[in-house]
Amino acid sequence: MLEVLVAILVLSIGLLGLAALQAFSLKANQSANFRTQATALANLIVERMRAHGGGALNTTVAYYGAGSDARAQNDLLEWQAAIAAQLPNGVGTLVFNGGNIGVSITWTDARWAIGADQQTAFVLNTTL
């Protein structure tokens, strides 16, 4: 009888361990999915800028919204809307430095941390 109870105890502990492993796997998979989406979204805006003409000065003016380029402003609005739709509390920003551009996307990944540590960021630096 004691052997059966010990076997049940060992089996129960093993099943709890498997359940914890499955929960961690789901959490990691969702986080990886968010990173994949952020990577695709960062590449999307860079490719739109390149397709738009790629000139550093023209692109800087157009994408900062200071210019009157409706296509560039529409690209930027669609990109920011896609980030907000695909990533929880997602925000995208662009930083221009001559011909170089920095694309930063931040979102909340509540599965990993508590408080301010929930913010996750993806940064892409490239040249147009």
Please tell me about this protein's structure.
The protein is an alpha+beta fold and 128 residues long. Helix content is 59%, strand content 20%. It contains 3 helices and 3 strands; from the N terminus they run αααβββ. The protein has helices at 2-52, 56-63, 70-86, and strands at 91-97, 100-108, 119-127. The chain has a 3-stranded antiparallel beta sheet with strand order 1-2-3. Helix 1 (2-52) runs antiparallel to helix 3 (70-86). The termini are far apart. The mean pLDDT is 81.
Largest sheet: 3 strands, antiparallel
C-alpha geometry: rod-shaped
List the uncertain runs. none
Counting DSSP E segments of at least 2 residues, the number of strands comes to 3
The overall average pLDDT, rounded, is 81
How many helices does DSSP assign? 3
Q: Give Rg in angstroms.
A: 23 Å
Helix-strand category: alpha+beta
Record the strand order, biggest sheet: 1-2-3
H/E topology pattern? HHHEEE
Proportion of beta-strand residues: 15-25%
* Residues in helix, %: 55-70%
What is the terminal-to-terminal distance? 74 Å
